[in-house]
Structures are given as structure tokens and as C-alpha cells.
Amino acid sequence: MEPAVEAGLNSISAESLSHIFSFLSPADLAAAACTHSAWRLAVGQEEGLWGALCESRFSLTSPTSPEGTPLPGFKAAFGAWHSAFGRYGQLAARALRAWRLIETWTGEHFPPVAASLRPGASEALLDAVEAELGVKLCPALRVLYRVHDGQELEFDRQVDKQRTAMHESVFHGMFGGYAFYNHMVSTRMLPLRRLVRWTRTAHTQLGFPAGDQRVLIAASHNFGKMIYCSASDGMVRVASVDKSTCLDAVPAGDGACDGVLRWFEAYAEALSAGRFAVEALELEYAESRSISLFPQLQPWCSQAVTEGVRVEGCPLFIPELTQASDPEPSYFFAYSIRFSLLPEQEQQRLMGTLAGPRDGVPLPSVQLRSRHWVIRDGSGAVESEVRGEAVVGMYPLLIAGEPRFAYQSCTHQKAASGSMEGNFKFVEGSLSQPGREFDVSCARFNLVVPDVVF
């Protein structure tokens, strides 16, 4: 190397080198390290540089191996993770980020699900699954299983032993659930050994055609809900009411065969954003705590406050009860209606508005008497109206500031879009000692098949 060039290279400060190297890819860093001894030393010792690469490529914030073993530094960690996940390129970064969101959220809000996540599957195990099923799994699905091999739940172990007693882990499905009337779902991610078993069972019992590429990746405890990934194109599809016909659960992509990863990312982001919450699916069964897919946030749900009474309308598309392939399709929706009476101080702040108490005096209690629903089609035209006493046979009594009351019901429609709105008659005080009767609005909520179905 020319002396002038050598001197110029040596004159670059360590701080400047670190800044320059931060823009380089790992391959370019390796090339830079081969260029000059000082650069090789800088590349090897710059922990901040390798730490940033570990975080951006592998969502890694501490120097550990993929197996969780502590390593001496981020450069060593990058090497270990690149060896394990490098073949997946950007798919690995996306999968790991989504998994970190799920790990963090479940660890904070629902530890039983976090504890149920299995260690990642090996490449050899994934190859064996492909050989057993006779399909080639798309890289987007493989990389998801490389991070975590689904869930290990006690009720599955009981099924293995041919025991059928209900266990609370039935409600610990990572992909959430819901319940209304006698229909209950909590969808777990199947580990690979169960994926193979239940994929074969589905193909045999449901009469899938030869060469069908559907792989069952998630299901509820009784297989009332079944979610597949197509090995041929990476799309996620969910079984409809006849079990063999499936609905797309994510929009078609640009040919990247990453539909399963886009679906998984959408779920992780919705979970992390607070769209879903942990609550009992069955009011009379405290152990039924689950990730509820009835939405908690607008615009996925509606909210209105009338004279201190808050009403939230939270709709949910139910694919496993939908029949979209018939000449006369039927799209099935459930909805959760949540009532609460605002604390008296909050009622006082709303005085003088429609949301506050009419007579200027906060209401300590109110009780529901009847309901009135208006159901519209996609154009906004009224299809039907429903009037009746109570809600699912109950007359909830609301006390100011106390936890909300919620009930679930369902409806179906001929098209993929529609809406519901209505009002509820309440009395001040209680039905046993009724005061003034007044109407409480439920703002319109949409009954629309979403682009992404969970």
C-alpha cells in the first residue's frame, strides 16, 4: 500500500470509522476488515456496531445464542444467529420481530401463553416434516417454526393420553378466541409433530384432493376452527362451515410467498397495539381467561355515551360458521356489547352535553329493560329491525364506576358487508325501584369481512 494511502487510512479517527461502518452490511464489513489492519481491528472490536446489526437483523438486545446461551459479545452473537437464520434473509428479521412482539405482550399480559411457546424447530426437523407430508414448506413458514415450534399445552397432552377432561389450557391459544352461546374458540399454534398428525387427519377425513398443499398450522381444541398455510404459495386460509372450503385470511401478495408471515405480523402488531385483551370468554367459568378477539379499539369497534351510560359495539367475523361458496352465501358475525355507567365525577364533567346526566344529577345506578336493533346492508338500506326485552335473557344493573357488563350474540347476512346500530332502554335506579326511562344509543358498527382474518 502506498505510504500516502496508508497514512490517510491511519488518520481516520475511531469515531469516524464507527460512523462509516454503521452504514455497511455484514458482507461489506467483512470486506472492509480485509482492506486494512486498523479497519480489521475496528470491525472486530466495535460492539456497538454488532449490537445494532443484531437488533436490526435478529431483534436481539443482549448477546445470546438462538438457544439462549450467553455469548461473550454481539459479534459472536451475530455469527451464531446468522448461522442459524442467515438462509432466510429479510424473512428472518420480520419473523423474529413479530415473535418478539408476541413474546413481550404475552409475557406481560398472559404469561400462560408465553410459557407454552416451544423452543424453535431445527432445520432437520423441518426437513423431516416435509418428507412426511410430501410437500415443500415455504421459507416464510419454516422461519416462523425456527423461532418457536408452536405451543405445548396440557390439554393436548391429555388428549394424547385419551383423557377428555376440560383443562384451562384449552383457552390458552396464542391466536386468541371468542365465545357466544354454545360456540367457543381458542386457537393454538400447532407444534410440528401435531401439525403432521392433524394435517394428515384433515386430508383423510375431509377428502382433500390428491396433491392438495394445505398444512394445518393452528386450530381450536375441538377443531371447530382450522387455519391452514398453503405450502405452494404461502397463503393463509381458514376453513369455512363445511370444513373443506377455505377463505383467504390474508390478501394475496406480489409473488413473494410470504402470506403466512404477513398474516403473523398483522396479528403480532394488533396484539401489541392493544386491539385485543385478556378476558374470560365464558362469564360463568373464571378459568376461561383467553386472548379475546372481540376488538378493544376504534375503528374496529364503536362507542357512544348517552346520559352517562357508555355502550361499545365490538363486531367479529366468524369464518368457521360462514358459507361463502354457496349460490346464496351466508356471512356469519358475532358481536360483544359492553355497557358501563361512568363514575359520578366523570358524569359531572359531561353535564350540559348529551353524554352527561339530563337533570344535572349524576346517576348512581341504571338497569337495562329492552333493546332495539337496526340492521343494514352494505348500501346502508335497512334490512331488518329487532325489538325485544333484555339482552340474552339478562337485565344488567349498572353501578357508577363499577366494571362493565358485556354480552355476546351473533347474526348473519347475505353479503360481505353490512352494519348494525340501535338503542337500549334503561331506567334510572333499578327495575325493582324504577325511575325515569331513557334511551341509550349504540353507535353503528360495521359487519364487514376484514382483509386479514384471525
TrEMBL record:
Pfam families in the record: DUF525, F-box-like
Domain of life according to the entry: Eukaryota
Stretches assigned to the ApaG domain: 303-454
Family matches, as PROSITE patterns: APAG (PS51087)
Name of this chain's protein: ApaG domain-containing protein
Organismal lineage: Eukaryota, Viridiplantae, Chlorophyta, core chlorophytes, Trebouxiophyceae
